[in-house]
Nuclease (Rhizobium anhuiense), 241 residues
Amino acid sequence: MAKTATRGRRKAPARGKSRARSSGGGLLPWAVIGIAAIGGIVAHDNWKSIQPMLARQATPVTRETAELKPSVRKDVPAKQVALATPTPKAAPPVQQSQPLPPAAIPTPAIQPIKAVPSPAYPAVSETGTVAFGYCGQGAHINCVGDGGVFWYKGEKIVIADMASPVVDQARCDGERRVAFAAKSRLLALLNAGPFTMNAAGKAEPSGAPRVVSRDGRSFGAQLINEGLARKPGAAGAAWCA
């Protein structure tokens, strides 16, 4: 009985220790909270003096962070990435067809050319009123060359409706006398007054063919009637007997 009581008494202090331990462990969190609260109050009261200290400690960290970031230069253009050029696809081979024969070229029908009649020479009239002389070695302006040829204002005129002998081409004395007489008579007709010249063909190097007349009477017809000329195309053997 005594041992049992002793054992029961000895166990009592152990319970007190456990209570002390449990009470001590429960006060620790409250102590930490209290210290934190006191520190917060002190920091709030002295915030102005604590803030510069915190800023100084944060500055090196900020600088280190800035140094770690690579600087980007604004003046350096961004790298351009060359795009790969698409490879053109090869066109499928075209099957060559057989060459087609050339199309027939239509031949235009040949139309007959209509004969256009040559225009008749207009009856251009010109009136002469200059004084004439015999042609010599100088320039021929207004002069008589032979019985059927004369120059008017530098143009050689051939009387178209008659043919008279030429002095330099006479085949006999009779033809030469007729040639001189025709030349003298033509000079007299031209100087007798105004006369009219009508074109009788195209001008040629041998002279411009004209029908010369006065008051409707041809000079060629007068010389033929006087025996000093003949019609164009007639034989000239009659001048030499």
Summary: Residues 144 and 187 are 6 Å apart (CA to CA). The longest helix spans residues 2-45.
